[in-house]
Amino acid sequence: MDNHKKLERLMLFHEVAKDLSFTKAAERLAISKSHLSLQIKKLEQEMNVALLVRSTRSVKLTEQGQAIARQTQDIQGSLIDIERSVNAGKEQITGVIKLTAPLLFTQAILLNICQKFKQRYAEVSFAIDCSYTPHDLHQSDYDLAFRATSQPPQNMVARALLPYQTICYASPSYLAENGTPTSVDELTLHQCLAGQDQRVWQFKSGEVPINGWLQLNDNNLLKNQAVAGSGIVKIPDYFAKKEVALGELLPLLQHQSLQERTIYLLYPQVIFQSKKLKTFIEFVFDEIKYLKHVKRDS
């Protein structure tokens, strides 16, 4: 077993041993109880020793568990000493934050958040992968991932960030000239600007075949065409927020939109997280909270 994994599991065991409680340790570490329990079981298997006696109501240390708990206390003390001896600059919020996020979310929201964070912390820079590739943060060097999903991975911390819906939009000029569809079936009579090879749009009532003069694998360009009065687009509501506020686009058939999806902020379950990442994560949630408040008031 790799030493770094052994050390991590030993420190997880130390947290359980402190209160003799998986629940309290998981809450303190901000990880799932199931993940914590699995790591302790792996530690016991790899060391070929029982560390804990578990029952439905209590957790007790075995004799070997008591001995190892005393040693992990010493390890924790050494780690604290190391941390205190590290250059004070390490506690400053500096360096690169590596992110991976969907392109539309990056364009509409994330870049603005990063710019604001940079204004507050001048020594920070960002490296962003704009793609829909579900990178494994345990195997890659990304610090954080933003991902639209209904099933966030169980082996990472997954914090719900932004609920959204995909909605149809058109410009006032297009609707004045072509009329406003009042049902999804009427979309077959309109110019629907869609993604490449996209033949149908999904709604609560089912699939609707679409027709239009343009198919394009760039939602930003499709949105621009809708603003110009060239047709109807179907895009995430957060991606049209600015144009709706300016009166350039109007939402259509909102009652037929599919149920909300959610963008999650994901990061590995670690014992110690840098001040830089902790600060940025809370900054992101504060900014999203503000955006939600503005949306409700608008």
Could you please describe the fold and organization of this structure?
- This protein is an alpha+beta fold and 298 residues long.
- The protein has 3 domains: 83 residues, Winged helix-like DNA-binding domain superfamily/Winged helix DNA-binding domain (Arc Repressor Mutant, subunit A); 110 residues, Periplasmic binding protein-like II (D-Maltodextrin-Binding Protein, domain 2, 3-Layer(aba) Sandwich); 91 residues, Periplasmic binding protein-like II (D-Maltodextrin-Binding Protein, domain 2).
- It is 42% helix and 21% strand.
- The chain contains 9 helices and 12 strands.
- It has a 5-stranded mixed β-sheet with strand order 4-3-5-12-6, covered by helices on one side. The protein has a 3-stranded antiparallel β-sheet with strand order 10-7-11. It has a two-stranded antiparallel ribbon with strand order 1-2.
- Helix 1 crosses helix 2, helix 1 crosses helix 3 and helix 1 packs across helix 4.
- The chain is elongated, with a radius of gyration of 25 Å.
- The termini are far apart.
